[in-house]
Amino acid sequence: MAAVKISKEILEIQRFTSSEAGAWSNAYLISGETDAILFDVFMLRAEAAELAKTIEQSGKTLQAVMISHAHPDHFMGLDAIVERFPAVHVLSTASVVADIKQDGPWIFSMLQDKLGVQGPKRLIIPEPLTDSGCRQQEREPADQHRPESGRNHPRGHAKLPAARG
């Protein structure tokens, strides 16, 4: 059996927080020496564009954006990120992708009307994670919460494969 070389690279995690108008949401940039992934994005276009500018100025290659769940303050600013990083992979769990496909169009339309120039220009639908890179965990009832509409929305969970030596 061939030996697997494990990098001892340290990862840096930077937290970014949107304004009150952007629902005080958080986005996290997880980066190594040269590459990065972004966990969630902001809803307001100017804040998402500023986040993209910060990532670009870091000199890191943005490899992927992971969306945690289908609330607009976590995914609606994706267009500003994809505009700056057109080759980036936008990912989420299958259940979150299904929720964004179902609810994203009406949320998109509502936010364009409410937010004007700060609203999204286009709706970006993430790709579902697959077993090749990450695998979805089974949902459990404890992973669900009930938003104001009364509809259950499962939260997205992904288990990243552990590096073993």
Describe it for me?
This protein has 165 residues and is an alpha/beta fold. The strands form three sheets. A six-stranded mixed sheet has the order 1-2-3-4-5-6. It has a two-stranded antiparallel ribbon with strand order 7-10. It contains four helices and ten strands; from the N terminus they run βββαβααβαβββββ. The protein has a single domain, classed as Ribonuclease Z/Hydroxyacylglutathione hydrolase-like (Metallo-beta-lactamase, Chain A, 4-Layer Sandwich). α1 packs parallel to α3. The C terminus is likely disordered.
Report the top-level CATH class. Answer: Alpha Beta
The helix content, as a percent range, equals 25-40%
* Class computed from helices, strands and strand pairing: alpha/beta
Low-confidence stretches: 135-165
Summarize this structure as a short list of keywords or feature phrases.
single chain; 165 residues; Metallo-beta-lactamase, Chain A; 28% helix
Could you give a quick summary of the protein structure above?
By secondary structure, the chain is α/β, with parallel strands linked by helices. The protein has helices spanning 45-58, 72-75, 78-84, 94-115, and strands at residues 12-17, 26-31, 35-39, 61-66, 89-92, 127-128, 135-136, 144-145, 153-154, 158-159.
Topology record:
Elements: E1 12-17, E2 26-31, E3 35-39, H1 45-58, E4 61-66, H2 72-75, H3 78-84, E5 89-92, H4 94-115, E6 127-128, E7 135-136, E8 144-145, E9 153-154, E10 158-159
Parallel strand pairs: 3-4, 4-5, 5-6
Antiparallel strand pairs: 1-2, 2-3, 7-10, 8-9
